[in-house]
Amino acid sequence: MAVSWIPDGMGETETFTLSSGEDEWPGSRPVDWAVAGESLRRAHERLRELPVRRIVAAVDAVAERWAERDFPHRRRVVADAAGVTGMSEETVDRALDAELGNLRAGSLLAALERELGDPEVLDGFRGGTRAIGPRVTVAVFSGNVPGLPARSLVRALLVKSALIAKIPAKEPNFTAAFLRSLHEVEPVLADAVLATYWSRDDDTTLSAALAQADAVVAYGSDQACAAIRARVAPHQVYEEHGHKLSFGIVSDAYSRLHGPAEVARRIAADCSDFDQHACLSPQVYLVDRRHARAVAEHVADAMRRAAADCPPGTVGDQDATVLQHRRIVAEWRAASSATGEVWAADGLEWTVVLDDTLLPLSGAGNRVARIVAVPDVATAVDLMRPYAKHLQNVGLGAVGEEFWRTAEDLARLGASRIAAPGEMSRAGLEWRHDGQPRIAGLVRWCDVEKHPESVATAG
C-alpha cells in the first residue's frame, strides 16, 4: 500500500519508492508544489467552515476505530512498523495505544481549553477575541515512536490548518493509513492534508514545500532541525522538537513508601516502553544510595518480566555493537568497584547497571536501565545540570514538600514535564510539548477593543 496520501487537485505527481532494509513501498509527491500549495489553501477555506467541535468529534471517531487492535488499518501499520523498526508487534501496539489514546474527545477538548480558554474562538469571535490558524503548516516528522505524527497532525487540524506532512522513513506507513481512516469519517479533514516523502538531502523539494507554509513544525536531531530552522522565513511560525534527554529520580522517602519491588516495577516500565527509544524514556534513574542496590536487583527481575510480557524488538547490528560495548564498560567498572554490578539477559533483551557515577551518556535505548546511586535528591538534580539544554522529562519519585521543592528546581533547570515513575512515556495531549503551547503556538489572535460594539456584546 502507498505510503503517501495525495488528495485530489494537487496537480501532476511523480512516483518514488521508499526502502527500509528489505522492504519497499510505493509513493507519490507533487511535481509542482505551487499548484499543491494553492490546492491546500482552498482545502483550508473548506476546513474553516467546520466547527471545532465537529473536528474533535471526527478525530475522536477515528481514534475509537484505531483503539480496536483488530482494526484493519491498524493491523497493517503494526506489521509494517514492526518490520521497519525491529520492534515487536506488541511494543508497536502499545505505542499506538499510548499515542492514539490522546486523541479522544475528552483529551482534545481539555488541551484546547488549557491553551485557548474557549475552543470556539477558532470558529469566530468569542468575548471580543478570535484565534486564526495557519493556512498551511509543514510538519517534518521523525519515526522513533510509532504513531507520533498523529499529535502534530491533529493539532494542525484542530486550528483549521491544512498540512504538508513529510513522513518518517523509519515508520512510513502510519500517517497515510491514519488519513485514509480519517477520510472515511470526515473527508474535509483528510483532504486538507498532503502526506509524502522526500530524502534528507533533497533540498529542492524541502524548499518548495516550505514555500507554501505559514507555519513549520520540525522533529529530529539537533542537526536536522537546524537545517530546517535556517530555511524558515521571518513570517513563518516555527516549532521544533530536537534532541531531548530524560531522567528519573527516586528519593529515600519514596522508596520507603512504596518498597523496592514496586519502585523497580515502575522503573522497568519506563525503561521498557517503546524499547526505550522515545525522548520521554529515561537515560538514567538516580536513586537514593540507601536503596539503590535493592532497587537495582528488583529492576533486573522486573525487566525480565517486562520482556516476557512485551517482547523487545530485534536490535540492529550497529546498535548491538554499541550495546555490547556499553555492557563491557559497565562490567569493567563493576569489577573495579565495591558497589557496582551488572545484570543482563543472555541475549540483548535487557540490561541493568548499578553504578555510583553518572558517566557521559553514550548510546540510548534497547531496554538499558542504569541505576546510579546518589546521596540525596539535591545531588541528583545537580548531576543533571550539564544536560539542562536537552532536558525534557523527569520521572520524579518524591513525596510531600520534597516533591514540590525538587519539581521547582527541575522546572528552573529546564524540564518541561514531571511525571510519576512508571508514567514517563505516557505524555498526555495537555502537556505543553517541550515547554511550549503547541496549539496556541500555531494561532494568530485578533482582539476587538475600545469599540462600542464590543461593549454592547459584553453587556
From TrEMBL:
<dbReference type="InterPro" id="IPR008670">
    <property type="entry name" value="CoA_reduct_LuxC"/>
</dbReference>
<keyword id="KW-0560">Oxidoreductase</keyword>
<keyword id="KW-0521">NADP</keyword>
<dbReference type="InterPro" id="IPR016161">
    <property type="entry name" value="Ald_DH/histidinol_DH"/>
</dbReference>
<dbReference type="Pfam" id="PF05893">
    <property type="entry name" value="LuxC"/>
</dbReference>
<protein>
    <recommendedName>
        <fullName>Acyl-CoA reductase</fullName>
        <ecNumber>1.2.1.50</ecNumber>
    </recommendedName>
</protein>
<comment type="similarity">
    <text>Belongs to the LuxC family.</text>
</comment>
